[in-house]
Design goal:
This protein is mainly β and about 140 residues long. About 10% of the residues lie in helices and about 50% in strands. A hairpin with a 4-residue loop joins strand 8 and strand 9. The N terminus is likely disordered.
């Protein structure tokens, strides 16, 4: 429970500085090594959505509009936490940015109550919505 609360605190701090200079985020995260060795497949309900991290791209499908494709511009590991990352993705349209906070910890989905490897929180700037869901590594797709 304490780990989850700390994760939420990092999410709130980063959302508050979203879009500002990189130096404002340094107190939360430092440069990371590799994120993970596999592509990541994430999903959530209420509303239904799917997000995939494939190599250096992010594919976000909210099932109501087009699929958004963004280029990963920055990955940072949270300071003091070896399994939490902040990922920024954007495309040529300045209004289409995604800020993600992903943590390697048990995540139980609310529909089937299955266990998953990662917990994901992200903010999609164009829609102005924040999402929460679970993720797994796509080992056979990389």
């Amino acid at each position: 429970m304490v780990s989850y609360i700390k994760f939420i605190m990092i999410f709130v701090v980063n959302i508050s500085v979203f879009g500002e200079e990189d130096s404002n985020v340094r107190h939360v995260a430092t440069e990371s090594e590799n994120f993970v060795d596999y592509n990541i497949d994430c999903f959530g309900t209420g509303p239904w959505w799917r997000l995939k991290i494939v190599e250096d791209k992010v594919f976000f499908d909210n099932y109501h509009e087009d699929v958004y494709v963004s280029q990963i511009s920055k990955i940072k590991k949270a300071e003091g936490y070896r399994t939490i990352w902040t990922i920024h993705a954007e495309n040529d349209d300045d209004d289409d940015k995604i800020t993600m906070f992903i943590s390697r910890e048990d995540c139980c989905d609310s529909m089937k109550h299955d266990d998953h490897t990662y917990l994901l929180l992200f903010y999609h700037q164009q829609s102005g919505l924040a999402y929460k869901g679970c993720c797994n590594e796509m080992r056979d797709e990389k």
